Amino acid sequence: MPLVYVTRKEQFNAAHKLYNPNWSDEKNEHIFGPCANKNWHGHNYDLWVTVKGEPNPETGFVVDLKDLSQLIRSTVIEKLDHKNLNLDVPFMFGLLSSTENLAIQVWIQLEQPIANLGCRLHSVRIAETERNSVEYFGS
Amino acid sequence: MPLVYVTRKEQFNAAHKLYNPNWSDEKNEHIFGPCANKNWHGHNYDLWVTVKGEPNPETGFVVDLKDLSQLIRSTVIEKLDHKNLNLDVPFMFGLLSSTENLAIQVWIQLEQPIANLGCRLHSVRIAETERNSVEYFGS
Amino acid sequence: MPLVYVTRKEQFNAAHKLYNPNWSDEKNEHIFGPCANKNWHGHNYDLWVTVKGEPNPETGFVVDLKDLSQLIRSTVIEKLDHKNLNLDVPFMFGLLSSTENLAIQVWIQLEQPIANLGCRLHSVRIAETERNSVEYFGS
Amino acid sequence: MPLVYVTRKEQFNAAHKLYNPNWSDEKNEHIFGPCANKNWHGHNYDLWVTVKGEPNPETGFVVDLKDLSQLIRSTVIEKLDHKNLNLDVPFMFGLLSSTENLAIQVWIQLEQPIANLGCRLHSVRIAETERNSVEYFGS
Amino acid sequence: MPLVYVTRKEQFNAAHKLYNPNWSDEKNEHIFGPCANKNWHGHNYDLWVTVKGEPNPETGFVVDLKDLSQLIRSTVIEKLDHKNLNLDVPFMFGLLSSTENLAIQVWIQLEQPIANLGCRLHSVRIAETERNSVEYFGS
Amino acid sequence: MPLVYVTRKEQFNAAHKLYNPNWSDEKNEHIFGPCANKNWHGHNYDLWVTVKGEPNPETGFVVDLKDLSQLIRSTVIEKLDHKNLNLDVPFMFGLLSSTENLAIQVWIQLEQPIANLGCRLHSVRIAETERNSVEYFGS
Question: Do chains D and F touch (3 or more CB pairs under 8 A)?
Fold first, then answer.
């Protein structure tokens, strides 16, 4: 049976800083440079969620992209968009707000709800800037 | 021996609608929403074809991209560009014109001709919009 | 007083064909080529609406972009998106569905409603493909 | 003599919020919506600076783009990148951090230094997101 | 009567170097830096040609974009694409191959042929990289 | 333990030609077409380097992207940018300057230095134009 991969792109705009509370301000500044700016900085993040499955013969869809978009928005985008990743996002509490950690946590949030739509989560990719991105395929 | 993946991007502009003839108009509208508009809608589709193989020592090429482009154009683009995916494309007859089905059928059209060029088809990716895309790697 | 130009981008996906009813099918095909395909083709259209005005000292805004986006969507996008430009769009009836005519008609639809928001319409730009676009600044 | 327009694009990543200190928190939230989030949000801002002048016959340049880039970076980017537009940027103190106000202030910072390079500032364009941008041509 | 602006984008890939033959190699290197590399470097150039005119009531077109594209290709792209701007392009002989000079010369090549198509050349824009571009509107 | 893939994009502008010294000029022109132009042509090349590893709990990083960018620049970009791929780049001597060969050689240059940063090289992707790209995952 044909396995097809379907990708939906969403976006969110958020503030954050890279800061390890076990370190001095000096060490944070030394390691993270301007990303440690105490008054925060921010990004337009792009998020690509890829799911896989077999197309339903009645619709031609692996998943209805309206449903997938709605699920991504309600599960993660509403919690991330126009927020502070360090202060406002429960699933990031206690974690450094690197793009790596963000991708892992978005995966954890999405994996079961996407299974409930009848397909499987394949990857979560997040671009922090045009030049820097990460991708996570689960553990 | 080094296996290298080579990707060529092509584009086509087409009309379509999502419509299951086994369903009432109401059910089509309920499931497919505005994509079921009876007078059609359309897209600028982007198509990425990825092939794999070892570079030829005399040319440095896995495949001459002029040949690959020419093959993709004559095999699929000429049948899709400025066409109606539901009415004009023989290899889509009887199928829902979802991007999933389109990617599977483009794969079927391209697999053997690309083998004849001396490399192997790796994936067919089609983006219907900037936010929605599918990828198929064969069965 | 500082005059600032503000641009909002929206998108719509539509079917159309180029067809002059005063001509024979042969002449339509000769002049318009594949754009005259009788079963339609389609595009992802990008629309940029630029307005101008002085920023309000209390908000820093020439116009609230949520209001501008909402106005563009209700005034033109809802009438164009997932539609057939020749059959479904009242403000295009009787006109060739060229991008030039589309930009002029979108301008006519938007000019007064944008004035009602407290700024002036400066230009309407529409891209039919990545390579072809038109811009209209009013008459 | 030929007048040529030369554009350099730079980028910066910053946090901000839209907040009018003369208003209650409720009114800020009512007017600015999620842009008023008290813990900030942020963006990848794109900045295009366009200058105009006649090409120097000895270099073919209106301006050496290395010099223009260096000037934009030292004059504005270093003050904006990885900063909080409300708290960290002297030339934005006391102003609402709308993109409109940002473009006007960037113009003010750049106008004289660009004249010192031997050409004239023509416009400052800033995109806050892919869909929202402003342009300022001076007063 | 409505004046509409129509833009066609074309591309070419070329080698060049910035080198003033009246200067020593040292001065060329000092002024132009790595752009003076004696063995050349190169770019994917993007070219946007904007014309203006009134739409023809029979076609809806200011200009048939197939004709405009064909004219741009035969008049300038064929002379620039896969060429060396310093050695292979007659209309650049004796000129520094800056993007400014290139835009001026492309304008000169295109102005009369575009008038022969029944519209007027409005601007020539050339991007050498994603960050550096020039635009020329004629003298 | 979570394995995360991190991608950094860099760019370089270079001249090259496709030319097999064992062939006559006629055969080179026949096989490579305009890519064999004796006076060279050139491109803006995009390079994506993907590494994989587990995020460091103290930084949240698989690799500090400042370090990865610095390593890519010193190891390959400085040798490629504003250079002639056939004449100026030691690691390309004796090889046809196809994008395939370039990707393989960039991999060879980067594999050990990236291991020294504490992560593993996953892939090297190079786009010669918007439509043509190659990817190499090692042998």
Answer: no
C101-137 core/surface letters (b: 16 or more CB in 10 A; e: else): bbbbbbbebbeeebeebebebbbbbbbbbeebbbbbb
Is residue E114 predicted with pLDDT exceeding 90?
yes
Q: What percent of chain A has pLDDT over 70?
A: 100
Q: What are the pLDDT digits (tens) for B124-136? A: 999 999 999 999 9
- Chain D residue with the nearest C-alpha to that of C62: D100
Relative to beta strand F41-53, strand D132-136 is unpaired
Catalytic status, residue B26: no
**What is the Cα–Cα distance from A66 to F88, expressed in whole angstroms?**
52
Interface contact flag, D40 A129, Cβ < 8 Å: no
- E-strand spans in F17-106? 41-53, 83-84
Count how many Cα atoms sit within 13 Å of the Cα of residue F46 in the half-sphere of its side chain.
17
Q: Is the pLDDT of residue F24 over 90?
A: yes
Residues comprising chain F, all counted: 139
Name the minimum distance, in Å, from the CA of B41 to any CA of chain C. 4
For chain D of 139 residues, list the mean pLDDT of each consecutive stretch of 10.
96 98 97 98 98 98 98 98 98 98 98 98 98 97
Question: Which chain A residue's Cα is nearest to D85?
Answer: A41
Q: Is B43 assigned a catalytic role?
A: no
Tell me whether residue F122 is one of the annotated catalytic residues. Answer: no
* Alpha-carbon gap, residue D98 to D101, rounded angstroms: 5
- Partner residue facing C96 (CB), from E60, E64, E66: E60
CB-CB contact of D76 with D108 (8 Å): no
How do strand C4-16 and strand C83-84 relate by DSSP bridges? parallel
Pairing outcome for strands A4-16 and A41-53: antiparallel
CA–CA gap between residue E91 and residue E105 (Å, rounded) = 7
pTM here is: 0.98
Identify the structural domains of chain A with CATH numbers, from first to last.
4-16+42-136 (3.30.479.10)
ipTM of the complex: 0.97
pLDDT tens, residue by residue, F30-42: 999 999 999 999 9
The Cα-based distances of A70 to A74, B41, B104, D119, D138 in angstroms read 6, 22, 26, 50, 43
E130: chain D residues, CB-CB within 8 Å: 9
| F33, F101, F136 ranked by CB distance to B60: nearest | F101
Please list, in sequence order, all residues whose beta carbon lies within 8 angstroms of the beta carbon of residue C61, skipping any fewer than 6 positions away: C55, D98, D100
Residue F26's pLDDT band (cuts 50, 70, 90): very high
What is the predicted pLDDT for the residue at D51?
Answer: 98
Q: Do D15 and A83 touch (CB under 8 A)?
A: no
Q: Is the pLDDT reported for residue B96 higher than 90?
A: yes
Catalytic residues of A: 35, 82, 128
State the virtual CA torsion across A66, A72, A73, A75 in degrees, nearest 10: 130
CB contact set of E71 (below 8 Å; sequence gap of 6+): E110, E113, E114, E117
